[in-house]
Design a protein that fits this description.
By secondary structure, the protein is mostly helical. It has five helices and three strands, in the order αααβαββα. The chain folds into two domains: 43 residues; 101 residues, no CATH class. A three-stranded antiparallel β-sheet has the order 1-3-2, with helices on one face. It is elongated and about 60 Å long.
Length: 166
């Protein structure tokens, strides 16, 4: 393994430590140990060469995700307070379009952030998703497919059917 990934990650954690500590030098010995350990651990858990999120795309994606989460939360609250609105909880299977494990794990996290849905980890090219309202399963399926495309965009992955471009 080359030294460049280790140095760039150590630098990233040094900047993070410095910003969190406010630049105070009193705890620098602890900070140096923590940044070295964090860099080593990040290299072990996520080796160089793995697909990764593009930072500028994450900066575009995050506000949109927060807005969708907020609006979805209002919808869930409205459904909880108005008994006339449909609620039919249940599970559906989302067929994953790409075999990129980091992207599929992130997709599960995105689904969990969105109100009314809960993902149960990717496995064997599919993800079980619990929905608050199965009456709208086809609309939910379309919505989840759009979220999957957005996550693929974060990683710079081509949005292809599973198995064709892997």
């Amino acid at each position: 393994m080359s030294l460049a990934p280790a140095l760039s990650r150590a630098l990233m954690f040094i900047v993070l430590w410095t910003s969190l500590s406010g630049g105070v030098m009193d705890g620098w010995a602890y900070g140096a140990a923590a940044t070295l350990l964090a860099a080593w651990l990040s290299l072990r858990l996520y080796p160089p060469g793995q697909p990764r999120v593009r930072a500028w795309r994450a900066a575009v994606f995050a506000p949109m995700l927060l807005a969708r989460g907020f609006l979805g939360g209002l919808d869930v609250a409205r459904r909880a307070l108005d008994p006339r609105l449909p609620i039919r909880p249940g599970w559906m299977v989302l067929r994953l379009r790409h075999g990129c494990v980091p992207a599929n794990v992130l997709l599960g996290g995105v689904i969990n952030i969105l109100p009314g849905s809960l993902a149960a980890g990717p496995q064997d090219g599919a993800m079980n998703v619990h929905l608050l309202n199965l009456y709208a399963e086809s609309a939910a399926s379309d919505s989840l497919a759009r979220e999957e495309k957005r996550v693929h965009w974060l990683f710079g992955l081509a949005d292809t059917e599973r198995g064709r471009d892997e």
